Structures are given as structure tokens and as C-alpha cells.
Amino acid sequence: RKKQKRALLKHLLKDKSIESALVFSTTKRGANMIAKDLVEAGIEAEAIHGNKSQNARQRALNNFKEGKIRVLVATDIAARGIDVNELSHVFNYNLPDVPETYVHRIGRTGRAGAKGVAISFCDIEETKSLKAIEKLINKEIPVVEDHPYKIRHINEDEVRKENTKNNSNKKPSSKRQGGNWRYSNNRRKNNS
């Protein structure tokens, strides 16, 4: 499943019309792995998080602002205070646990009346977070299926059944999940 998520991210970022993208990861390790994977695929990227020195974070941010790299991969804490004009895309590689954080993430694109695109990946473990986000924004985030990484859609009854079967404290087996994650594209125009 993680391989599919990374493959989809690389597929989307190969599109040169994406001038600048901020990719959010929930963990520092995840941010490093995503950035490394993108660089290996020929996509200019750097990670920024709390374990990096202030100099390293500032250098990565400057490289991003100056267009030396197209992609900045960040944790939420490291992304605080990042102010980038003309950010075209935000990718939620992992959905945040706190719904308000989602609003802050996607608010980084489409500033000053410009158009921006927020794309969110959601796997089976994040469906609860997705529902909380949709409730907060009072809008269903549409699923986009126009990509080469098709997956089987699951409904909430299947998730509950799987969770009960595997004991509520355990994650459903990856074999049964079969890489079930949700890719959504939230196009928005921010008028603030």
C-alpha cells in the first residue's frame, strides 16, 4: 500500500504543470523517505522537519522559494510559519489526526485569490480522520479515479466488519486491505 501511495505521488509530481508542491507527512521519518524516493525518481525535493538543523531547514525553504526544488516535504510542526507565495499544490500524503490541521494545510495554496489545488491520499486507517475533516468543512471530498493506481472501494460496513474480525485493537491485515486507500483532489479557490 505504501508503495502504491509513493508511486501515485511520483506519478502526479511528474506533471510539470505542478510548479511548486508542499507535501505533508505525519512523521519525520516519513518526510525523509518521501523526499528520498522523489529525488531517486528525478523530482527535485527536500524534507523539512524538527530533527533537521535550523540551517538545513532554512536552506531547504530557500531552495523551495527560489525554485531550485519543486517539492518540499514537511511535517505539520516544521511547516508552521512557512509562507510561500504562489504555491500551486498541497499534497496530504497522510491525513492529519486533527481536522483543523487539514484546513491549515490546504489554506497554504490559493492565497490572495490565486487558484490552488489540494490533493489528499487516504488509506483505510485514515477513514475516520477523513470523515471528521468532511464534517468540519461541511463538504464531501470527492474521490478522483483518473489515475493508473486503481483500488477497490470499500464501504464503512466492510471496515467495521474487518476491525471486529481482527479485534478492535489491531489493524486490519494488509492482505485483506489490498492497498485500499483513497485519492481525493480538492480544488478550491481561496478568497481570503
From TrEMBL:
Q: Does the keyword ATP-binding apply?
A: yes
Give the record's GO CC terms. Answer: cytosol
- Segments of this protein annotated with the region Disordered: 156-192
All copies of the Helicase C-terminal domain together span: 7-155
UniProt keywords (A-Z) are: ATP-binding, Helicase, Hydrolase, Nucleotide-binding
Which SUPFAM superfamilies does the record match to this protein? P-loop containing nucleoside triphosphate hydrolases
Gene Ontology MF annotations: ATP binding; hydrolase activity; RNA helicase activity
Does the record bear ATP-binding in its keywords? yes
Q: Which family does it belong to?
A: Belongs to the DEAD box helicase family.
Q: What is this protein called?
A: ATP-dependent RNA helicase RhlE
| Top-level taxonomy | Bacteria, Bacillati, Bacillota, Clostridia, Eubacteriales
